[in-house]
Amino acid sequence: IAFLDDKWQLHKQKIQFAGKDQIISYQTNYKALLLLIDPDEKIPDARTHEYRIIKNKKEIQFNNELFSLQANELKDSAFIYIIHHWIKPVIKHEQQKEYTFAQRYWTVNYLPEENFSASAKFYFDLSYALDGRLAKYGAEKLRLLYRENSNSNWQIIESKQINAGRKSYFLLSLLKKGDYTIAVIK
Q1: Fewer CB within a 10 Å sphere, N or C end of the chain?
Q2: Peptide bond into 39 cis (omega under 30)
Q3: What does the pLDDT look like over 25-35, one tens digit per residue?
């Protein structure tokens, strides 16, 4: 794990746990702003993630996460943490009836929340296994969905789909912390 301090420094700690459910307490001598699980990607799991410190307004590519962002407002710097989950999100039963979901989703986190805003691109490929089940509906039926956290319902978020054949992306004008996925309304 790693704790992020107010100077954007990561303090890494190894922890050991046994079993599926365990609570581990850890105290720091600084105010931890963010907790990162497996920051160096040592655990084999169905996700890729990347963190960066943004210091200018140029477009930043997160290639392994199929994501990019463009800072629109940036006072000094921002810490960005993007996770691309290579599995279908857990979906509340009632929402399974509303949408057909892609087999992937993204989690976006950043600091500070004030004096930072960005637009983002979420890339997809209808010929690829994770998005292929949506291909039969056609790219024009796809929507970008957002939820604040896993306890929230998915909802359509205002975005623009930029088509380039089966490989395309959604352009989101105002990035928010939370989860994003692609789906088709049934």
Answers
A1: C
A2: no
A3: 878 888 888 88
